[in-house]
């Protein structure tokens, strides 16, 4: 029998069964005259592309002609189709056209007749499932089959059901045709309510207002009844029905989930909390809190649709309180409850716990799921399998999540850990603040005034937190939360705090507690690293323990949690990431190895114990005073400061300067913001900053969606698609199946204009979620299907070109990067290359690639690693190990292929731009597709490629990605979505700045976090002293007004104490002994420029070190955003050491560098004093030109030491940094009176300019804590003669001593002998002799030594580089001989020390190496090769002078700066002009004296000093009988050393050598080891005329030397620099 005849039979049977009268008598029609019609309409042009029709007699029609279609349909009474009423008809029939044909729509009847799973096999949502595209006749056949089944199902309904549906749907145009075709009887509206009540008895509330619902919502009523009539509670109403008739949700709620006042059987059974508690969980009663039925009350409120806030203690049954209402509504209204939770482990645990009870209604979608599991989870939500969905708040930004929630009847949003809403909570999360907006938008899209109730849960909450949560939902959703709060405490928990002094004591006590308890135990620690260390230590001691922390691999986390939950392991060592929602009833011991960072967290974590009310559990805290410091440090590291958010806003403004909307990744934003991208959790920090900007209205974040669509199917059916995919060479064996699945999904959903959200369903992220594949796979297969022609090509990539009309800049960028990349590839050896970015860049520059930068090298290495050219591993110091994936030839061949492709692409895109319209050309935007580009390369690229046919899709994508990464082009869309995750729209003007007021909420949160650490510390101390007082303290904390609590327990000065990020003891230790002036500097957090003119002895270094500590610990400055610049490596090392003494290991991470070293960093060069000339100016130029990576210059604070020594270039650098960082603060400290380097361009005026910057402040530090009163008075008198000073106030001595100042005026030219005699009678304490020149210092040293005084010399050694010293070179050689990784292994370091110290044990110069090694060890926790090399190459020999053991120090005035001595003797040969530079130098010498100052001079420069003892010495003094000449490079004939390297290297510093006839000899071998230069020979001749002869010589230094401009291959020479002792001939 034909389908036509079968339908006629069915319709006839329906007619004969008509026995109910109706007022509505439809026109009698012949059901035999029907036809099916389907129209294909273009999605973009909305025009008819094709028409298909199928008539009752089997005739078909397939033409794009409306006129001919009318002829085909003549005589037809019923025109049928799927969605014909609202889609096909409006294209086929004019609105004014009078047609007698009746439209029969299969779409609208399907959910009524097939409401239960499995739904009709031909329908998915609102679409017909088909296996052919662009074949409307085939679609007609599918629609005919569906109609036949619908008529069959209609006939199968009971008479009453048919009457109910027909009456409800009477007059609805979507249903009229079907009802006429089946001759449905329509009853009286008045009789229908009772009929419904009878038919659905026991399934709906007996007292529901059915009549009112029928009158208002007849069609939604029909759909609701269809769903209610199903036997499977997991069947759901199709999304398109909910979209068109949102009232369905309201109707079904009224009928099935609105408790009647009378109390019918249905409500008493299905909506009764106790019965459902027993039904789902098997419990007889709810949990009570001191007899208070809070859990039951909260459950009942949720069942009644109320919004609520429940505050239950940990283990108080919170989960059941939202699970039970969710399960009830899953059964009654087939609804979905969305649970928003912050932790993935909590979600998994809840789903598993329900599954253990046989409840499979819960599902979680989170980042831990693999693509297949994610796909299955989404399918379960869509299909109705899930009535509970657990997601994290950030998932609300997923378009897929939004889509599946729109497709379900969401009955409630549950927000767990609701304190995250409040800045006053212990775990405020900015992403929680998006929840309200999402729910509001969701309700708006649902329509019909949908109001989804909200349940908020938290275990602990202060009054202010409760108020914040309530205010939040009132603001966003205009709802009032009903509060359910427990005041009861857990009676079965015993608390104790044990005070311990050391880590060893703490571990011993822990082990004792665990062994005694012998039960499931949770040990909480504050740091992730400690979880593993402690677990390993316990396991070694025979107590099996497992670690758990948030940074572990997800598989390991899940495994360890399961081991503990199942009882296979009794001890778990965890951070606070473990335990939220974990419900293990037999935990008998919780130990806080590190105290929690708040009372809330402590109560929650301790509450993991004793979940079984019958179990008495113990909760211990092992408390050490330093524990709080760890929390303060961690808070400071994780805190997002105002300045950091400003930097992110600045980055967003930079990205959106040309257009308001961009797609970019979190890492790109971090780099643009100047953040160090090696910082942990950097993506989370960026997203938090963006959320803060979004909350303040600066930006709008879209859903995280890639805008790539798989549209335009060109094959006719699945068979053709499969055949073409199988035959194609483009698909690998593993990709064939994926391609088939994708095309099947697209074809089956029939992407035509009448489909709802067809564009959404073709988006690649949606396909990935649905098919269980990752986005990269989807994009790759879609591109291949485009290339094969299975999908139409789509121009989904946008290129933003620079300088349209001229491709020169893009071409130059490409060629530059290509040159640099080729250099990198050729320098990777077959095994691997282990190098720092800086060293690699330095090498490139030295090889002639002068434009090379560290930033560009990093970009290229990233690209090479991403695309599989190399493997790359990187460590914290930016050292990198690179391995090629293929041999050199293959790598270079692939590189050249890509380069040629890039050249073609650049030319092609600019050519396209010239062809486009003027507006596009003006904006420089070209829309194109990868397939289009590939085809043109193959057609036009024969000159560039040996065989253009070899160019594949991957080659083009690689070239485009390369051009995008190197900045030759800006590309968005297409496959590049895999690299750009976030969609950002700037809302506010680029001139606006993120302000303090915007930051208020976050700042309040951090302030609370800080206070909470103090509060929990107070609890620990109270618990040790008084148990009852501690419990009252906790009770008051949670129940009193917060301000009243603070005023009760923290009175007076303690209020200020708890506002600091330090314990009171630590604060007193660091900042307790400061003067008012020093305290001003430390406490100033507002001034943009603080310029401190610090007089001598005013504690400048002390203040600076404490200001650094304050910045790090009290002022929200991250170590990576703090930069300190000095003028010497020695000063940098001293500051690092002093800072370490003050704040510990945190000092290792602070960047303290010399100006030169920092600029070498900016240039990506290895620091070297030989190359220092011009480096500061070059770095400044690069900053101004935007060529420096933002993370190198994105500093929050710049601190400058010895600011008076700044020159023009140094000041220009500071200005460039300030311009690049509009919010950067500068703290410059120096003494204008101590600027003694004018000869090299330094000037105090630059300090003055800084103080005049907007927001600048000038402070004078005039209190002298070093010198006695008379020394300070003398210095004050002397300094008056210096002009152009900044300080106006006199220096004030804070010393209680008078001291002594004596000035001896000589008439003699030479004063060495009287100074030596004076020194011989020195007083107690340290003593120093200061001279003006090196020669004078050496003479004084020799003279004092000859008198038996142990002296040490400090002098400048110009031309002598520390790194060239023989001993240092040997140490470097030993260290580098063991280089296997970027870090120097301890064994290699110790071996180098042992070898060097042994080999040069007799060398007097070894002391410098020893001191260097010691200082490097002190200031570098991890020893990196790159850091050590820089440390050595930037240091001076005098930086490592060890003055210990010296009775007297002899120094030049220049080298005495920064030092201090009890007794200072100054030898001042006053034969120079008294300019300001000279006077300042004398002033520096004078102010080195702590107690006594003795000046010997032969001039009048000190005549202005009052209150000094004066002595006039009229005697004439000769030169000393013995003098020493220290030879430098200019004093020896350097080329001579080419022939005596071995002989020179055999000597040691201090060895005796002999002099004869202008040569130096090794006395033990008789071989010549040096030849004197003509200059020195002449100098010796002059001394001979004065009666001096050479009496001895010794080795001073042996140094490496290579002439400039010689080949690199030429070996260095070993140069001997000697001391020559001359004695006056007594018998001339």
In short:
Helix content is 44%, strand content 15%. With 1628 residues, it is of the alpha/beta class. Helix 26 packs antiparallel against helix 42 (1000-1025) and helix 30 (718-727) runs antiparallel to helix 31.
Task: Tell me about this structure.
The chain is 44% helix and 15% strand. It is α/β, with parallel strands linked by helices. The chain has a seven-stranded parallel beta sheet with strand order 10-11-9-12-13-8-14, with helices on both faces. Strands 40-41-39-42-43-38-44 form a seven-stranded parallel beta sheet, with helices on both faces. It is elongated. 47% of the residues are buried.
User: In this structure, how is the largest beta sheet organized?
Assistant: 7 strands, parallel
Structural class based on helices, strands and sheet pairing: alpha/beta
Q: Extract low-pLDDT stretches.
A: 1-8, 10-26, 750-760
Number of helices: 65
Keywords:
single chain; alpha/beta; 50 strands; 15% strand
List the helices and strands and how they pair.
Layout: H1 3-16, E1 34-41, E2 48-55, E3 60-62, H2 66-73, E4 78-81, H3 84-92, E5 102-105, H4 106-113, E6 123-124, E7 127-128, H5 136-156, H6 159-168, H7 173-181, H8 192-199, H9 210-216, H10 218-228, H11 239-244, H12 247-256, H13 265-270, H14 273-281, H15 294-303, E8 308-311, H16 318-332, E9 336-340, H17 344-356, E10 362-364, H18 371-383, E11 388-391, H19 399-406, E12 410-415, H20 435-446, E13 454-458, H21 463-477, E14 482-485, E15 493-499, H22 503-517, E16 521-524, H23 528-540, E17 545-548, H24 554-566, E18 571-574, E19 589-592, H25 599-606, E20 617-623, H26 627-638, H27 642-655, E21 661-664, H28 666-672, H29 682-695, E22 699-701, H30 718-727, H31 733-748, H32 758-761, H33 764-771, H34 775-788, E23 797-800, H35 808-826, E24 833-836, H36 837-846, H37 854-866, E25 870-874, E26 879-884, H38 888-915, H39 918-923, E27 925-928, H40 930-940, H41 953-965, E28 970-973, E29 982-986, H42 1000-1025, H43 1027-1039, H44 1042-1049, H45 1054-1057, H46 1064-1071, H47 1076-1083, E30 1089-1094, H48 1100-1113, E31 1122-1126, H49 1129-1143, ...
């Amino acid at each position: 029998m034909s389908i036509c005849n079968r339908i006629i039979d069915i319709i006839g049977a329906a007619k004969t069964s008509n026995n109910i009268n109706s007022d509505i008598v439809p026109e009698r029609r012949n059901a035999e005259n029907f036809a099916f019609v389907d129209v294909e309409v273009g999605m973009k042009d909305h025009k008819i592309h094709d028409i298909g029709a199928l008539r009752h007699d089997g005739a078909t029609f397939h033409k794009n002609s409306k006129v001919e279609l009318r002829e085909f349909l003549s005589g037809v009474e019923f025109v049928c189709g799927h969605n014909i009423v609202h889609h096909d008809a409006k294209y086929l029939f004019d609105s004014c056209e009078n047609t007698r044909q009746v439209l029969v729509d299969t779409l609208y009847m399907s959910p009524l007749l097939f409401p239960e799973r499995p739904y009709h096999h031909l329908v998915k949502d609102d679409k017909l499932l088909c296996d052919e595209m662009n074949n409307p006749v085939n679609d007609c056949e599918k629609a005919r089959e569906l109609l036949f089944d619908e008529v069959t199902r209609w006939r199968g309904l009971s008479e009453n059901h048919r009457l109910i549906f027909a009456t409800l749907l009477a007059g609805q145009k979507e249903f009229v045709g079907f009802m006429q075709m089946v001759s449905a009887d329509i009853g009286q509206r008045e009789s229908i309510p009772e009929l419904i009540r009878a038919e659905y008895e026991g399934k709906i509330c007996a007292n529901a207002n059915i009549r009112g619902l029928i009158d208002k919502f007849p069609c939604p009523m029909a759909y609701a009844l269809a769903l209610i009539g199903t036997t499977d509670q997991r069947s759901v109403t199709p999304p398109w029905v909910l979209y068109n008739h949102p009232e369905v949700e309201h109707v079904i709620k009224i009928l099935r989930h609105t408790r009647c006042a009378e109390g019918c059987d249905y409500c008493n059974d299905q909506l009764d909390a106790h019965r459902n508690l027993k039904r789902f969980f098997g419990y007889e009663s709810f949990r009570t809190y001191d007899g208070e039925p809070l859990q039951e009350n909260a459950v009942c409120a949720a069942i009644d649709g109320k919004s609520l806030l429940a505050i239950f203690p940990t283990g108080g049954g919170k989960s059941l309180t939202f699970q039970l209402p969710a399960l009830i509504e899953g059964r009654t209204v087939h609804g979905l409850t969305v649970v928003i939770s912050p932790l993935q482990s909590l979600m998994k645990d809840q789903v598993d716990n329900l599954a253990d009870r046989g409840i499979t209604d819960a599902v979680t979608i989170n980042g831990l799921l693999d693509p297949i599991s994610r796909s299955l989870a989404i399918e379960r939500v869509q299909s109705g399998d899930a009535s509970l969905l657990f997601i994290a708040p950030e998932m609300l930004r997923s378009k897929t999540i939004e889509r599946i929630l729109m497709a379900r009847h969401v009955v409630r949003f549950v927000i767990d850990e609701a304190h995250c809403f409040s800045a006053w909570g212990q775990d405020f999360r900015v992403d929680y603040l998006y929840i309200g907006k999402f729910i509001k938008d969701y309700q708006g899209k649902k329509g019909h005034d949908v109001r989804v109730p909200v349940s908020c849960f938290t275990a602990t909450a202060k009054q202010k937190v409760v108020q914040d949560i309530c205010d939040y939902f009132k603001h966003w959703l205009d709802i009032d939360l009903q509060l359910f709060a427990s005041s009861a405490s857990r009676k079965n928990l015993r608390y104790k705090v044990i005070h311990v002094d050391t880590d060893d004591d703490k571990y011993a006590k822990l082990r004792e507690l665990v062994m005694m308890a012998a039960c499931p135990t949770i040990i909480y620690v504050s740091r992730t690293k400690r979880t593993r260390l402690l677990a390993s230590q316990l396991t070694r001691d025979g107590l099996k323990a497992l670690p758990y922390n948030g940074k572990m691999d997800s598989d390991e986390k899940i495994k360890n949690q399961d081991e503990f939950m199942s009882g296979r392991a009794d001890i778990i060592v965890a951070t606070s990431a473990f335990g939220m929602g974990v419900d293990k009833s037999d935990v008998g011991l919780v130990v806080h190895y590190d105290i929690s960072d708040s009372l809330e967290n402590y109560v929650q974590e301790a509450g993991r114990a004793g979940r079984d009310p019958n179990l008495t559990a113990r909760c211990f805290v092992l408390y050490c005073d330093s524990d709080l410091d760890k929390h303060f440090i961690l808070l400071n590291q994780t805190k997002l400061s105002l300045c950091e958010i400003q930097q992110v806003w600045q980055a967003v403004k930079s990205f959106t300067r040309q257009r308001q909307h961009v797609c970019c990744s979190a890492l790109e934003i971090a780099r643009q913001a100047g953040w160090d991208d090696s910082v942990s959790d950097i993506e989370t920090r960026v997203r938090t900053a963006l959320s803060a900007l979004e909350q303040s209205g600066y930006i709008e974040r879209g859903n995280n969606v890639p805008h790539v669509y798989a549209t335009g199917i060109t094959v006719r059916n699945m068979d053709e698609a499969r055949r073409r995919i199988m035959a194609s060479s483009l698909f690998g064996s593993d990709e064939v199946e994926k391609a088939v699945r994708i095309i099947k999904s697209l074809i089956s959903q029939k992407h035509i204009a009448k489909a709802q959200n067809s564009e959404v369903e073709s988006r690649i992220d949606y396909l990935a979620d649905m098919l269980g594949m990752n986005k990269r796979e989807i994009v790759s297969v879609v591109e291949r299907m485009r290339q094969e022609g299975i999908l139409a090509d789509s121009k989904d990539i946008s290129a933003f070109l620079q300088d349209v009309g001229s491709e020169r800049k893009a071409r130059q960028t490409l060629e530059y990067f290509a040159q640099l990349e080729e250099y990198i590839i050729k320098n990777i050896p077959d095994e691997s290359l282990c190098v720092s970015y800086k060293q690699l860049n330095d090498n490139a520059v030295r090889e002639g690639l002068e434009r090379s930068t560290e930033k560009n090298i990093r970009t290229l290495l990233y690209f090479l690693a991403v695309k599989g050219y190399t493997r790359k591993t990187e460590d914290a110091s930016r050292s990198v190990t690179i391995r090629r994936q293929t041999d050199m030839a293959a790598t270079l061949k692939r590189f050249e292929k890509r380069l040629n492709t890039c050249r073609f692409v650049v030319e092609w895109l600019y050519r396209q731009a010239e062809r486009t319209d003027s507006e596009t050309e003006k904006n420089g935007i070209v829309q194109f597709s990868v397939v289009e580009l590939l085809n043109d390369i193959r057609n036009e690229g024969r000159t560039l490629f040996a065989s253009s046919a070899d160019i594949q899709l991957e080659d083009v994508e690689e070239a485009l990605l390369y051009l995008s990464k190197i900045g030759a082009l800006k590309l968005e869309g297409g496959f590049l979505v895999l690299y750009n995750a976030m969609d950002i729209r700037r809302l506010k003007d680029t001139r606006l700045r993120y302000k303090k007021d915007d930051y208020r909420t976050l700042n309040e949160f951090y302030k609370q976090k800080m206070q909470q650490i103090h509060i929990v510390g107070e609890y620990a101390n109270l618990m040790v002293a008084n148990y009852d007082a501690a419990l009252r303290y906790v009770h008051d904390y949670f129940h009193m007004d917060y301000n009243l609590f603070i005023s009760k327990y923290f009175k007076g000065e303690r209020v200020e104490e708890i506002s600091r990020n330090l314990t009171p003891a630590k604060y007193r230790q660091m900042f307790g002994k400061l003067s008012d002036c020093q305290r001003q500097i430390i406490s100033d957090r507002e001034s943009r420029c603080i310029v401190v003119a610090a007089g001598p002895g005013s504690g400048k270094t002390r203040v600076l070190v404490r200001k650094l500590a304050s910045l790090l610990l009290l002022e929200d400055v991250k170590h990576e955003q703090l930069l300190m610049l000095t003028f010497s490596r020695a000063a940098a090392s001293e500051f690092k050491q002093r800072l370490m003494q003050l704040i510990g290991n945190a000092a290792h991470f602070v960047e303290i560098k010399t100006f030169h070293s920092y600029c070498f960093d900016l240039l990506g060069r290895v620091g070297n004093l030989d190359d220092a000339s011009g480096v500061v100016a070059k770095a400044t130029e690069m900053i101004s030109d935007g060529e420096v990576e933002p993370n190198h210059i994105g500093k929050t604070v710049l601190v400058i030491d010895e600011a008076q020594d700044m020159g023009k270039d140094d000041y220009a650098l500071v200005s460039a940094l300030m311009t690049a960082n509009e919010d950067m603060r500068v703290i410059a400290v120096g003494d204008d009176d101590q600027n003694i380097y004018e000869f090299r361009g330094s000037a105090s005026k630059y300090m003055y300019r800084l103080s005049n910057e907007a927001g600048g402040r000038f402070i004078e530090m005039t209190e002298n804590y070093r010198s006695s009163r008379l020394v300070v008075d003398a210095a004050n008198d002397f300094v008056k003669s210096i002009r152009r000073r900044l300080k106006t106030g006199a220096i004030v001595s804070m010393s209680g001593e008078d001291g002594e100042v004596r000035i001896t005026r000589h008439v003699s030219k030479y004063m060495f002998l009287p100074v030596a005699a004076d020194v011989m009678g020195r007083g107690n304490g340290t003593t120093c002799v200061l001279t003006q020149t090196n020669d004078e210092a050496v003479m004084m040293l020799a003279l004092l030594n000859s008198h038996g005084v142990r002296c040490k010399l400090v002098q400048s050694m110009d031309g002598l580089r520390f790194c060239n010293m023989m001993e240092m070179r040997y140490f470097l050689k030993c260290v580098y001989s063991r280089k296997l990784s970027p870090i120097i292994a301890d064994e290699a370091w110790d071996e180098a020390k042992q070898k060097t110290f042994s080999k040069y044990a007799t060398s007097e110069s070894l002391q410098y190496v020893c001191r260097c090694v010691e200082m490097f060890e002190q200031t570098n926790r991890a020893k990196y090769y790159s850091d050590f090399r820089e440390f050595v190459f930037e240091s001076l020999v005098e930086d490592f002078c060890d003055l210990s053991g010296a009775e007297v120090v002899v120094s030049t005035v220049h080298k005495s700066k920064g030092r201090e001595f009890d007794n200072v003797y100054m030898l001042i040969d006053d034969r120079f002009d008294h300019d300001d530079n000279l006077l300042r130098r004398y002033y520096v010498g004078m102010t080195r004296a702590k107690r006594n100052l003795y000046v010997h001079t032969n001039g009048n420069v000190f005549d202005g000093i009052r209150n000094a003892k004066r002595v006039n010495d009229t005697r004439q003094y000769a030169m000393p009988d013995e003098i020493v000449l220290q030879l430098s490079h200019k004093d020896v004939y350097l080329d001579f050393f080419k022939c005596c390297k071995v002989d020179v290297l055999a000597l040691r510093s201090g060895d005796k050598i002999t002099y004869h006839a202008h040569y130096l000899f090794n006395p033990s071998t008789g071989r010549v080891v040096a030849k004197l230069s003509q200059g020195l020979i002449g100098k010796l001749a002059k001394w001979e005329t004065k009666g001096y002869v050479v009496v001895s010589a010794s080795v001073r230094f042996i140094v490496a030397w290579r002439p400039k401009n010689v080949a690199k291959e030429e070996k260095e020479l070993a140069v001997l620099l000697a001391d020559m002792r001359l004695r006056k001939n007594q018998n001339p």
